[in-house]
């Protein structure tokens, strides 16, 4: 194969353009990932705050034995557990403190 100087310049230009294009999309993808990570961190902060508030509400003793009140408390507990599950899936970190709170809660419930 005999490549002339002009052929090599065309090939080099095409490879350079492809390299520049791939770098552009890599940077664009990296910026999207950073934005997504920030959004997830903000969501986890909100979930953590709501989880704390719901846990405090569930600690308050109820002096009313109505079915509706017990059902509402049960729904609150389910919502709290769902928030914890979502946070665990998003962060993939072991939330030892939250797990200890849940373990203590279930131990008290069994008694």
Radius of gyration: 27 Å
- State the end-to-end CA separation: 85 Å
Number of strands: 0
Oligomerization state of this entry?
Answer: single chain
The low-pLDDT segments are none
Biggest sheet descriptor = none
As for the number of domains, it is 1
Q: What spatial form do the alpha-carbon principal axes imply? A: rod-shaped
Count the DSSP helices.
3
Structural class: mainly alpha
SSE order, one letter for each helix or strand: HHH
- Mean model confidence by pLDDT: 78
The proportion of residues forming helix, as a percent range, comes to over 70%
How big a fraction of the residues is strand?
A: under 5%
Task: Detail the topology: elements first, then pairings.
Blueprint: H1 5-59, H2 67-91, H3 96-110
Walk me through this protein's architecture.
The protein is mainly alpha-helical. It has one domain. The chain is built from three helices and no strands. α1 runs antiparallel to α2 (67-91).
Question: How do you describe this structure in short?
Answer:
Helix content is 86%, strand content 0%.
Q: What would the keywords be for this entry?
A:
0% strand, mainly alpha, rod-shaped, 3 helices, 86% helix, single chain, 111 residues
């Amino acid at each position: 194969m005999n490549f002339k100087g002009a052929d090599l310049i065309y090939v080099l230009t095409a490879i350079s353009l492809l390299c520049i294009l791939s770098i552009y999309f890599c940077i664009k993808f990296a910026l999207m990932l950073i934005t997504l990570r920030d959004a997830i961190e903000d969501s986890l902060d909100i979930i953590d705050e709501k989880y704390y508030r719901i846990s405090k509400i569930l600690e308050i003793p109820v002096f009313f034995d109505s079915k509706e009140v017990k059902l509402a408390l049960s729904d609150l507990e389910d919502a709290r557990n769902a928030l914890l599950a979502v946070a665990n899936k998003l962060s993939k970190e072991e939330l030892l403190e939250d797990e200890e709170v849940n373990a203590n809660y279930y131990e008290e419930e069994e008694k």
